[in-house]
Amino acid sequence: MSTTPVIEVERLNVTYGDFHAVRDLSFEVRRGELYALIGTNGAGKTSTLETIEGHRTPTSGTVRVFGHSPRDRRVVRPRVGVMLQESGFSPDLTVRESVRLIGRLTRRTDDVDRVLDIVDLTGRSGRKVSQLSGGEKRRLDFATAVYGTPELVFLDEPTTGLDIQSRDALWATVDRLRENGATIVLTTHYLEEAQQRADRIGLMHQGTFHREGTVSELTRTLPAVIRFSLPPVAPALPLQAVVDAHGKVVVETFGLQKDLHTLLGWAQDHAVELRDLQAGPTRLDDVFRAIGS
Amino acid sequence: MLPIALSELIQIFRNRLVLITSLIVPVAVSALFVRQHETFAAVGSLGYIAAIVMFTVAAFGLYATAVTTLASRRQNLFLKRLRSTVASDRSILAGLLLPVTILAVVQVTAILTALAVVAGGPANVVLLVVAVLATLAMMIGLGLATAGLTNSPEHAQVTTLPVTLGVVAVSSWVGISGTEDLTVLKRLLPGGSATEMAVNAWNGGVAVTDSLLLLAPTFGWVVVAIALATRLFRWEPRR
Known about the structure:
The structure holds 2 protein chains of 2 kinds. Chain A has helices at residues 45-53, 73-76, 95-106, 112-118, 134-146, 164-179, 191-197, 215-219, 256-269, 284-289; strands at residues 5-16, 19-30, 34-39, 60-65, 80-83, 152-156, 183-187, 200-205, 208-213, 224-229, 242-243, 249-253, 275-280.
């Protein structure tokens, strides 16, 4: 992965009348990385993404894609594939006609059959878009985004409505694009996808970044949790703990392995059973949930 | 622009409702005027028939279809999809409107040719062509402006009524009663000058330079419509 920025956002502000959707947002997306933009509802993800895609004009601040304004379509769009959040296809065109039309308008070259094969729509190529299921429309959308193997791909909630096989196929294609050096910008509500796949994450809240960094950098800001039940009579615990509303003992720790070892040793020594023992590292979900608190 | 125009043409011929409203209705109404040309010529003149045919096609075939098309493509985010490509805004609009414009030109040409064959041709063909093109330009401009106020194809059935009925009514009024009285008002109304120009072109008897002056109010409406469209036109549905 290169450190050369493909996307540069500097002090971006987007307002709609009195509503400030994005506030002084600055970040970069480097060449070859998968950058996930996640956040609470109304956090400003869509406004940010649409501004970077060139669909929206910033109220103030600058956005550069490959060093150009994203609104300079002739220069930027041949290098960019966009998977919109919603379909955006004409219902009276067939699948093949839709891919061919959008493909031609990207000025990239590709084989329509190859692209349809990637998204498993070869058998549906003659069908009108109006006859496709929701999942098939998402796959069609993805097909137009990866047509001609673009250098930068925007994936706006790409797996919503897809079955598990289609999700796997989509991510396999994304992996292949990345092997060829493509940069991916992802927005998703599926945090496990961001956690598994993103090199870096921008976590948005109220129009700006609540946090930004790698998964490890984001999760290390919160303690991991060990949770278990104790019998009614038990000796004093070796660690500081609280009891939650369900009567479970909760230990918050920044040294999970060490404290778990201490706890298990204590249980062994005192012949205490730690019922329903759960322990795990901090997940992105936990960081996300902590936003409001 | 051409790939968009081609896909639009495919969609027009696949959508029966659009096909009926944009092709069959204007042709059927115009055919009635041509068939009954002696009756309508007695009310106005052959020039009046030419003008009313021109406005029937321009209003129902071009204007209403253009508004419906743009509203529909916006509603299903097809406009946003097209804007995700290299295509410029102008080429997107041109591509979307080119097929209906060409169809309207073909319709007007065919119907006026039929009128010329059965009732005798126009006195000044070039002036008639200018009148037709100016009218189509005005209706495209009004279509873009109206599309900005139209949320959906269903909504277009309501939003297109004032202009559709308005220009046909003005054309009938000017075509039948002439512009001897209320001259300024009739020429300033949308379609008034274009109707007078078409009547002059078909019937003859008026100096070409006098007729060409009538282009000014028609293009004035084009400018007003484009200015309105610039302010009103939206590429995405309201959130």
